[in-house]
Design goal:
By secondary structure, the chain is mostly beta strands. It has strands at about 1-5, 10, 15-25, 35-40, 45-50, 55-60, 65-70, 75-80, 90-95, 115, 120. The strands form 2 sheets. Strands 2, 4, 5, 6, 9, 10 and 11 form a 7-stranded mixed sheet that branches.
Length: about 120
């Protein structure tokens, strides 16, 4: 099982970024995948999650309407499109996988497998 997050970088407020989470060793369609973020000195928080089929999506209130989670089953990749970025979105972003048949969760401790983080910095 491997998850590889990428796509972070420096962006100005109001800008956009798309994060990718490439999965290997398992089929995305069978697992819930979540995006989390952790800012310096803060606890890791849930940002978004996409369930196993049929792929229902969930968002934290702080990103609802600005972020979109999606998945490409052919590429076995989950994306997080982030628009209208704010300085408070600055954090290391992680993707993670729940166990077999488990649903989406907002809590990081419910996720067993993690990718390395990718840093998103929103600053002028």
């Amino acid at each position: 099982v491997q998850l590889q997050a990428s796509g972070g970088g420096l962006v100005q407020p109001g800008g956009s970024l798309r994060l990718s989470c490439a999965a290997s060793g398992f089929a995305l369609d069978d697992y819930a995948i979540g995006w989390f973020r952790q800012a310096p000195g803060k606890e890791r928080e849930g940002v978004s999650c996409v369930s196993r089929s049929p792929g229902n999506t969930y968002y934290a209130d702080s990103v609802k309407g600005r972020f979109t989670i999606s998945r490409d089953l052919a590429k076995n990749t989950v994306y997080l499109q982030m628009n209208s970025l704010k300085p408070e979105d600055t954090a290391v972003y992680y993707c993670a996988r729940r166990g077999p048949s488990e649903s989406c969760s907002r809590w990081y401790w419910d996720f067993a497998s993690w990718g390395q983080g990718t840093l998103v910095t929103v600053s002028s």
